[in-house]
Amino acid sequence: MRTHRLRAATASAALLGALVLAGPDPSAASTAGAPVQVTVNANAGLATMPDTGLGINDAIWDKELGTTAVSDLLKNAGVRMVRYPGGSYGDIYHWKTHTAPGGYVAPGTDFDTFMAAVQRTGAQPMIIANYGTGTPEEAADWVRYANVTKKYGATYWTVGNENYGNGHYGSEWEADNHPDKSPQAYADGVVAFADAMKAVDPTIKVGAVLTMPGNWPDGIVAGGDPATWNRTVLTVAGSKIDFVDLHWYPGGSTAAESLAKPEQITDAVYLAREQIARYAPADAGRIGISLTETNVGVGPDTQPGALFLADAYSGLLESGVFTVQWWNVHNGIGTVSTVAGRTDYGDFGLLSSGTCLADGTTCEPPLNTPFAPYHGLAMMNAFARPGDRFVRAGTDDPLVTAHAVRRPDGDLAVLLVNKDPDAARTVGIAYTGYTPAAAAPTVHTYVNGGTGLTTAQSGTATSRTLPPYSLTTLVLHPASQVTGTPGAPGSPTVSAVTDRTATLTWTAAAAGGHPVAKYELHRQNGATDEQLGETTGTSFTVANLIPGTRYTVNVLARDTAGKLGPPSPPLTFTTGSPATSTCTVRFTDNNDWGNGYVAGVDITNDGPDAIDGWTLTFDWPTAWQRMNGGWNATWDQNGRTVKATSLDSNGRLAARGGSVSAGFVAGYTGPNILPPVFTLNGTVCHTS
């Protein structure tokens, strides 16, 4: 969030435990429609849950920052990383004097108090070094104090907060005393900060602030700049950083719209990694991604907040983000409303501040009472533990989402999110690569209005009724413990990617009870998979691929006894266009304004024959991109497919070089992935 300040809090506290049996009776809910089909594929491996995964923000204006009560609540919810000193305060905070000119600093919130609270919680800190009004020397002194003098072992340090909000793009909320507020100036600053800080402690990890793909000001090039914020920062500072730091407030005018936003996570993280790979110097794969602020657009204190938190944390962590951090521990009462029958105080905090509206008409619950998102975080702790491997899960109902993890001990946990505020959903669950035991699974449930998770053993692994607006986690044991399987192959890499082929290479899997006989390459198609090939070696060239298509692949080892081991880490790559063709298309994103742009399309006939009348088609990579009318062609969009048909005046393209230029206005409401391939009169063109 931008800068938030905690309002005056009540003096007394009524603390609640992390897991309290309470809430509406789910048996009273009615079931809507046919059963939802849920598929869990244990062979389709995603990222491993990191020990820094479950995070939260804490702030120097919060007088509860250092209290044992808060530390205990965060520990019970599984928090493993805490960010300090709090959003935009990071760019006005001077740690030596514990001051934030222009802001409020509560008593008992200095760095040592924060670190004591972090240690009680059992978490790691993430610290914002003051770029806006500080210096590299001040940041280096902080590293020295933290890790040399006090030996805190603080590993993660970000240079600034939302520094693109310094006015350079027109909106100004982030403090920045530098005369030059361009991305080039910030990137140069990151280099200076990283050099100074790592000179003190070369083991720390330094992060740079980027914009979340699909969120302002992603895609915008300000006047006088040669490129976007992300491209500039990565190009200049990529060799000096260890991670990039993103914030994501996807918004939404209704709870339903807000709860649909996690659908964009896979594409947003894909674009972020693509930008890192394209613009950062060599060895860009070492650069991680943190997501240090997020919150829901509607219902931040009530059930939408809990559902969004669990869905978004799961989606980001299974995509390889190494920490996700909710905004905020405490925040203070805002606009009061009713959401799904519950009072929402417009408070972006995880815990109640115990504050009231200025006129005293409405007050929050007692200080430190957990709001619904707190219980969403507790559900995440019940669902995914450090070391668990996320695996692919999916459903056929947009109001029900599913996530799953495979645990090192062989157990499988499935998180189910019912986003329907009014109706229960009956789900049928099918498993690939895993056979659950017949015994009743352990079931954790959080329902609308509940004051904690309920936990019981009930039902079966293959069928469940989800209460309205609820979170449900099933923890399953395997039908039998399979021993002696091969290990997981090493992380695959890709080379020689063309429009139709790609070569994958990986390190060998450790043998189990029998020698490894072969390796199988499986492509993820949602929660199902298809085998692309197999080999006895550790490299394989996949053929018959589709141009301009994104592939996510796992490698699995099978031994001479037929036992299949766990999947490798996933590899994602995208095929290109043909190196040569009888046509060439140049597509450009011009004058981007953050949710749209002017698209330029230049078509060239490279073939030996003239073309009399042409039709150009392409597919948008996502459902939130659209064509809003164009010129020099007759434009039409049907679903994701866009078609441009020549006019009478420009239908003839001469052989070997005849060309035409057209264009349209594009719009997008999520990550903007440009179309990778185009066909002209049915022929796939080379894209330049």
From TrEMBL:
UniProt keyword annotation of Amino-acid biosynthesis present: no
PROSITE patterns: CBM2 (PS51173), FN3 (PS50853)
Residues spanning the signal sequence: 1-22
InterPro entries associated with the record: CBD2, CBM2/CBM3_carb-bd_dom_sf, CBM2_carb-bd_dom_sf, FN3_dom, FN3_sf, GH, Glyco_hydro_b, Ig-like_fold
Keywords tagged on the record: Carbohydrate metabolism, Glycosidase, Hydrolase, Polysaccharide degradation, Signal
Domain Fibronectin type-III as annotated: residue spans: 488-578
The keyword Hydrolase is assigned to this record: yes
Domain CBM2 span(s) in chain numbering: 576-688
Coiled-coil stretches: none
Pfam families registered for this protein in UniProt: CBM_2, fn3
Protein name (database record): Chitodextrinase
Taxonomic classification: Bacteria, Bacillati, Actinomycetota, Actinomycetes, Streptosporangiales
